[in-house]
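Anyone else keep sequences and structure tokens together like this?

Example one:
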Amino acid sequence: MRYTITTLIMLIFAAASFAGAEAEDMTLEVTPGKYEIKKETSTNLKPEPMTRTEETCITESKFDPQAALPDRENCSVSNMKKKGNNVTFDIDCKGGTQMLPMRGTAEYGTTQTTLSWKLNMKGMMEDQEVTVNSKGSGKRIGDCD
């Protein structure tokens, strides 16, 4: 069961995707196009990090970091700050059927043709602290197909 929950946690955070902007003042500029995205997620319950590289088409010129939350219904954002091309905030996820209750921090950044992020989360499972760290980067590799 611990392995299943750990796998689900890692997949949830690794699967955070980019979507259109909602809060104009906290969005980040990015050039639309095809991006190569490299993701790495690790947890203290599994020694080897899970890595994945994929290509995705970003169609919007503005990126809303809140839209990339793994579970927008059960996760809330506070202390959101924007400085230049970086946005930081705290995350509080109350948990659900496929996610532990967790708290942590996030940082997202972009340039015109790159993006990056870091998520650091902590929670408890069966009286043991669980940490999940996810980071990633992307670079524009051309136009969308």
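And example two:
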Amino acid sequence: MSDAIGIDIGYGFTKTFTIKNGIPEMKVFSTIVSSYIPDFSFGTKIPTIMVNGSKFSIGEDLVLNGIPYENTTRQDFVGSPSYMAILGYTLYHTDFHGKIMVLGLPPSFYHKERTKELTEKIRKQWFVDESGKPIIVPEIIKFVPQGAGIFFNCVALYPGIFKKNVVVIDIGYYTLDMIFFSLGKYVEGTALSTPLGIKRLYDDIRKEFAKVYGIFAKDDESIEELIGLGKYIHLGEEYKLDVSNIIRSYRNMVFTTIKGHIEKVIKKIDYAFMGGGGVRHLQGIINGINIIENPQFANAAGFYLYGEQFLEN
């Protein structure tokens, strides 16, 4: 079993990466959490976690059952009891008992005082699983900027870029994050975080769908069908929608944002890499930007690599 785990708690999804018995283990679940604990007598049992004596329910079944859940995009979510519930559930869900966990922070939130405060706060948490068993927090806790995991992945594949100037673009569910590394060092003043994640595209399609049909489209899977097939079927009825102009508009917004921010970086850029779950709709958006392999787990995998390297040093 590995001594390290990378945990990418995103606004939409939480991804993890570790190595067990020499085999990479990747997991993903919705970052959906509620302090309301449903008591169903039949059907799916919604996972729960106890944090400092308070119980939380976790996962997308909350949405399916119409249960109110936390707004993970609010500014005070990171470090909140709900955030801790997601973290505790992640450690339980992955059954991790190693020495170090590495997490990401949005670039706009990342600074030494904040990471120190969060680390101390996590150490004070008391996590208990559904069976009443305590969940042990790893001995070492490290935070890195969101998107840095993509960079660490790239360094593992192309060690030479550690001596170059590298821009990293992370297209998440809610946000587009950009960070810059010069000669292997993170340049804090050049970071950008803006609400241009893939949800922006989904929401624009939902608005257009509502205009055409007078009803809202169903879940994100239905939106993906509209993007890929131009239609989806609900209760035997086919709903068609040409979303090509909406996709084009979204791609243009992302293109303009990325180009505009790159131009503000005073150094010449040697390499640019893109990762995150939203990149599937942005391939080829800008010449010279490389999409990393397995982009959805790129951050979590890079966090893991950082943790392993930290232990070695």
